[in-house]
Design goal:
The protein is α+β, with helices and mostly antiparallel strands and 160 residues long. The chain has helices at residues 13-22, 35-40, 86-99, 116-124, and strands at residues 5-7, 48-54, 57-65, 73-79, 106-112, 128-138, 144-153. Strand 4 (73-79), helix 3 and strand 5 (106-112) form a beta-alpha-beta unit.
Length: 160
């Protein structure tokens, strides 16, 4: 699959994103962002919602906050089809998109300590500077879980 690009969501992408967020497999690791927040994200100077498209197909989404600062935060990130390397392709393109904004210095996120696939992906792309946050978040399953806060400088390319 050739490289793609992050763009604002198309008309049917919000439903696709909501379905991904509502997927029971994501209940322990993703927040169910309200439709209104997704629909208005790109109207706010501090939030963004992007969909990663390659070969005309939506493959992943990224919901970001702190967009009006030097340190945007990845709130939610998921691929629509797993096991095809889309996460790595989309994350690399996301980092490069953020690097294209000279006002952005670092990129950060929270990740559940138990979310091994996400941790592997973020480590692959140079996220570090861990901060352990014990019992920091209660997921949709009612579990209070530990998180890591990970940072990545945007001064170097997304090489893997």
């Amino acid at each position: 699959m050739s490289g793609g690009a992050w763009i604002a969501p198309k008309s049917d992408d919000i439903d696709r994103i909501l379905a991904s967020l509502a997927d029971p497999a994501h209940a322990g690791v993703l927040t169910l962002v309200p439709r209104e927040d997704l629909e208005t994200a790109n109207e706010s100077p501090d939030r963004a919602l992007w969909v990663y498209y390659a070969e005309g197909k939506p493959l992943a989404f990224a919901y970001l906050s702190h967009f009006a600062t030097e340190t945007p935060k990845l709130e939610e990130f998921a691929v629509f089809v797993k096991g095809m390397g889309i996460g790595a392709m989309a994350m690399g393109a996301l980092i490069e998109s953020l690097r294209g904004n000279p006002g952005f210095k670092r990129f950060w996120l929270h990740v559940a300590t138990t979310n091994e696939p996400a941790l592997r992906l973020y480590r692959k792309f140079g996220f570090g500077q861990d901060e352990f946050l014990p019992a920091h978040w209660t997921n949709r399953l009612g579990e209070t879980i530990d998180l890591l806060r990970l940072w990545r400088s945007l001064d170097h390319p997304a090489l893997i």
